[in-house]
Amino acid sequence: MNKVLVIGSGGREHALAWRLAQSTTVEQVFVAPGNAGTAIEDGIDNVVLDVNNHQAVIQFCQLQNVTLVVVGPEQPLVDGMVDDLSAAGIPCFGPSAAAAQLEGSKAFAKQFLEKHNIPTAAYGEFITVAEAKTYLQDKSFPIVIKADGLAAGKGVIIAEDLAHAEATVEDMLEANAFGDAGSRIIIEEFLQGEEASYIVMADGENFLAMATSQDHKARDNGDVGPNTGGMGAYSPAPVVTADIDAKVVETVIKPTLAGMAKDGMPFTGFLYAGLMIDSSGESKVLEFNVRFGDPETQPIMTRLQSNLDQLCLAAIAGELDQHSIQWDSRFAIGVVMAEAGYPLGNDKGNVIQGLNEVPADIKVFHAGTAQQAGNVVTAGGRVLCVCALDEDLKQAQQKAYQGVKAISWGSEYYRTDIGFKAIK
Ligand code: AMP
Ligand code: GLY
Predict the structure, then answer these.
(1) Among candidates 186, 181, 193, 172, which has minimal Cα distance to 123?
(2) Ligand 1: which of 123, 156, 190 to mutate, judged by most atoms within 8 Å of the beta carbon?
(3) Which terminal Cβ of the chain has fewer Cβ within 10 Å, N or C?
């Protein structure tokens, strides 16, 4: 029986921990630091650990006989948590720091894509304002400007015209709007089409595809408003037809895993390709993430039927080719409830009402929540993700919104159209 430690505190980590706790081969799940949702789950315990201190994490794992660590967010991966825990003999699922550069540096990712002929937007890479401005002169607009480093989903600006593009370049390279993350920038062609998330579990060579999904990155209904970490997701995503799926595997996933192995950084972990699919069904890579998506994890985990711990351990052993993965065939949809100011603002500490009035077949994953004097309170940003399953996506959507309507804290905000692209 496995004892699993999940690193992180978001909705993604609640969903991963919840699914792991249901595995027939898991006896105990710890989450560091977790949230109010993981605190109240059967079989899950939050632990107070400084996850930046890899030595402290190693000591905890040794003391508790942890048999598997699953790292949720990108920062500890980029910081080498998998390298350090693996060196201490602790099975840790995720990419090495070297492989995590696929997300940690957009310049690394673009160079990699170009080198291995994997479809992506045409681009330039810059560290000076003068060169960036010269590059912009003969370009068409909109154009996309990205900070090289990790910027918590905020480092991508779509510039509508030359003036906006020049101002953004100055902001990033001179005014340090994104700190070190923006001391190098990518300027790339604006791609048209429909976005989808294609996520696989990889063992350095082999992979198992996760169910397809689609996120909603814009804050407001109809995909307008500022870019966010994601306001809701559903799975499967009908935009990824069987043909497109097969093409993505051949043109993106296989060459990425082969290229990383060839370059001496075999990729083990969840690999997330953010794709733009054009009207002729061709997909280009917008970005890589080296971890599961949030909120995609929540609906996808709602559908996963296999023992996730067994798959993670098989991946660490390089034996994913001996495994398959089972899914609930129904649609799952997850609606994010955020604090009204999200993605800006800092409102928190509001008591969440109604969590116990949500119908039993709806799963509420917590993200920004905390326990305070016997209440569950908001802790800012994205607060909850309310998930429902149904054979029919529209029914799943209605169920999820029934759950959403049962919950309130006064300043909640959510989109009312999650799933609209597949329902219209
Ligand atoms: P990224 O973090 O690179 O995925 O960018 C965040 C969001 O910006 C994406 O989900 C897209 O909606 C948008 N985006 C990024 N790159 C492009 C591009 N080349 N063309 C159009 N939209 C883009
Ligand atoms: N939902 C997008 C992400 O996790 O980056």
Answers:
(1) 186
(2) 156
(3) C
Strand 214-215 to strand 207-209: parallel, antiparallel, or no bridges (unpaired)?
unpaired
DSSP codes joined into one string, 106-152: HHHHHHHHHHTT--B--EEEESSHHHHHHHHTT--SSEEEEESS--T
pLDDT for res 150 = 87
- Using DSSP bridges, classify how beta strands 232-235 and 331-339 pair: parallel, antiparallel or unpaired: antiparallel
Instruction: Please give the span between the terminal C-alpha atoms of the chain, in angstroms, as a whole number.
Output: 45
How do the residues of the chain divide into helix, strand and coil, expressed in percent and rounded to 5?
Answer: 30, 30, 40
CA-closest candidate to residue 25, choices 46, 41, 3: 3
pLDDT in tens, 181-209: 778 899 999 999 999 999 999 999 999 99
Contacts of 122 (CB under 8 A, 6+ apart): 188, 189
Where do runs of H (alpha helix) occur along 140-200? 162-173
Beta strand segments in 204-322, E? 207-209, 214-215, 218-220, 224-227, 232-235, 268-277, 283-289
- What is the distance of C-alpha 88 from the center of its chain? 27
Rounded CA gap, 374 and 366, in Å? 16
d(CA 413, CA 247): 37
- Could you identify the atom of ligand 2 that is nearest to the CA of residue 295? 1
Instruction: Report the pocket of ligand 1 as residue ranges, CB < 6 Å.
Output: 121, 144, 146, 156, 188-191, 195, 217, 227, 274, 286-287
- Neighbour-count burial of 290, counting CB atoms closer than 10 A to its CB (0-12 exposed, 13-18 middle, 19+ buried): buried
Q: Find the 250 Cα to ligand 1 centroid distance in Å.
A: 22
pTM score: 0.95
Atom of ligand 1 nearest to the CA of 188: 19
pLDDT lower than 70: segments of the chain: 153
Kindly state the DSSP code that residue 179 receives in the 8-state scheme.
Answer: G
